[in-house]
Here is the input.
Amino acid sequence: MKYIMLIYQGAALERQAALSEEEQKQVYADYQGLNQTPGVTPGLPMGLPESATTVRVEGGKTLATDGPFVGTKEAVGGWLILEADDLDAAIEVAARVPAARYGGAVEIRPSQVYW
Here is the structure.
């Protein structure tokens, strides 16, 4: 089964910035290790929420708003696709995401095709 893993940074960015240089290198190495895990298709890191533009269509009109439209402090900071046997295997990979250790979270969703 394919899973989409959304990486929510939360406080992780601030906590990681306070780490020693050696600890920060380990965080980058951990992300590299995830990207090299069999079954993982890495996504691109995302810009900060402040750089987002949110688009809606209301009454046939396109509305673009500066900034994110999220009802949470934890904005998505990245994503990856994982081919795993089951949810338990996906959880094991998600637990290796550094953001999950430093105050963020990883949301796992089964991939679905609607067309």
Notes: The helical segments are 12-17, 21-35, 87-94, 98-101.
